Amino acid sequence: MDNINKSIACTVTSCKYHSDSENYCTLNNINVGTHEANPTKSECTDCNSFECKD
User: Fold this and answer.
1) Would you say 21 and 1 are in contact if contact means Cβ atoms under 8 Å apart?
2) Taking a C-beta distance cutoff of 8 angstroms, is the pair 46, 30 a contact?
């Protein structure tokens, strides 16, 4: 069984840390960042903890 973190919802199934059984992350915490100089909407933010599944 995964160590599901119900505090971090996630639907990115290609991420190494996505739970295989539910739409949650298995990390204890994540790092959220941005690729914009002045982010103004959610599309400007990124989960910097993302790693692609092998």
Assistant:
1) yes
2) no
Q: What are phi and psi of 27, to 5 degrees?
A: -80, 155
Quick one: tokens of 51?
A: 């790693």
Q: What is the pLDDT of residue 21?
A: 94
Give me the residue spans of the domains in the chain: 5-47
Print the SS3 string covering the chain. Answer: CCCCEEEEECCCCCECCECCCCCEECCCCCCEEECCCCCCCHHHEEECCCCECC
What confidence tens digit (pLDDT) does each residue in 4-20 have? 999 999 999 999 999 99
Q: Looking at the predicted structure, is the pLDDT value of residue 1 above 70?
A: no
Strand partners, 52: 15
